[in-house]
Design a protein that fits this description.
CATH architecture of the largest domain: 2-Layer Sandwich
Distance between the termini: 18 Å
Number of domains: 2
Largest sheet: 4 strands, antiparallel
CATH class of the largest domain: Alpha Beta
Radius of gyration: 16 Å
Strand order of the largest sheet: 2-3-1-4
Number of helices: 5
CATH superfamily of the largest domain: ACT domain
Strand content: 15-25%
Shape: globular
């Protein structure tokens, strides 16, 4: 079974048990813990990140930024990533009728903190910048958005 399919099934089971209104952080933590426990048993050579467009990787974050457009948003989010020792591997941003939206794929393999700590850093940075910033591991993002 491919890693993405396993994560998808676990995520679906967790949402089925907790309900669709479950806290995203709780679901992500449970899925991560379950995946780490069962993946070595079910195969694919351990929990190594895999390079596949459909599966995603555990060492990359999908960072979404939304808010009213103003100068400094891209610079502020980029600064958060740089301070955390993360690299931007892909970025797309747009402004529509004064509303700002940006999606970044960030490599967190050199980060010295967990994905959860990075999420907290983004939440605080978003408050300072006057925007909403959401971050999720790419593998979980891909699996959860198939539901």
């Amino acid at each position: 079974m491919a890693n993405e399919e396993l994560i998808y099934r676990i995520t679906r089971a967790v949402y089925a048990r907790l309900g669709a209104e479950a806290d995203e952080r709780t679901v992500e933590a449970l899925v991560t813990d379950i995946y780490r426990a069962v993946e070595p048993v079910v195969g694919e050579g351990g929990a190594q990140p895999r390079e596949s467009a459909g599966e995603g990787r555990a060492d990359r974050l999908i960072v979404s930024v939304f808010g009213v457009d103003h100068p400094g948003i891209v610079a502020g989010v980029s600064q958060i990533l740089a301070e955390a020792r993360c690299s931007i591997t892909d970025i797309n941003q747009t402004v529509v009728s004064g509303k700002f939206a940006m999606v970044i794929v960030a490599d967190i393999s050199r980060a010295q903190e967990s994905a959860a700590a990075l999420k907290d850093r983004f939440r605080e940075g978003g408050e300072r910048l006057g925007v909403r910033i959401y971050a999720q591991r790419e593998d979980l993002f891909n699996a959860m958005h198939r539901i």
